[in-house]
Design brief:
Mean pLDDT: 94
Largest sheet: 6 strands, mixed
Order of helices and strands: EHEHEHEHEEHEHEHEHEEHEHH
Distance between the termini: 49 Å
Strand order of the largest sheet: 2-1-3-5-6-4
Number of helices: 11
Length: about 290
Amino acid sequence: MRDSRETFVNHAFVTGYPIKHSRSPLIHGYWLKQLGLEGSYRAMEVSPEAFPDFIASLKSGQSGFTGGNVTIPHKELAFALSDRPDRLSTELGASNTLWVENGLVHATNTDGHGFTANLDERAPGWDNCQTAIVLGAGGASRAVIQAVRDRGVKTIHVVNRTAARAQELADRFGPAVHAQPMEALPEVMKDAGLFINTTSLGMDGSAVPEIDFTVMSPGSVVTDIVYVPLKTPILAQAEAQGFATVDGLGMLLHQAAPGFEKWFGKRPTVDAVLRQIIIDDMASHA
């Protein structure tokens, strides 16, 4: 007979389509072992057509999961199907972290937390700047813009090849955010203190334009949300010009921590061992 005082074992998931590339099971598996917790975290490949049924089974308890992470292409639908999305999710129109309470699916988005926590760890004081440049206006830029604005950066220039897409983000995130065409990049970079690449430039050997970072303020930080390769061409350019750089791997690691705490009850720590585990995994799949 089971002891009624026995700790309930929680199970969590990451779902996307496809999902086999996800490193989230490695991250959460490391924390479960490190903290001595029973439980599991599994990758679940769910097609867009099957996703509403997956959420229904989560809500009903039939899935056996306490909650989980959601990645491409389900983030918008996860927000739409959740019962209690928070402010972050509502403004973004997307959720990446779900948990069940009293039969209701709660939702948040931890991408912005992951972004700022990574900079806090690796470039403390980054948020003392007045002006930030966000290169790119795709879905990945939304949480970044929101997080930088919420940290008090007064002027955020979103620079994109299609100015209309940048304008959509300016309309969404308010007067601190300004839409700029690509040709305005050299001008708006003057005296900026933070440069963020949210595009896929440099991935898979794609060409990257030469960027003059020297017009930025002394002590500026350049970061890239891409983490494969770890040192992207944009980071290499900035480093060669004498600027502090922060790679995107920490964003992946830090965005995972709030969800883990929701599902398993303890706040994990992003440490050097975990970072190296993911770097070694990336190298083995290169």
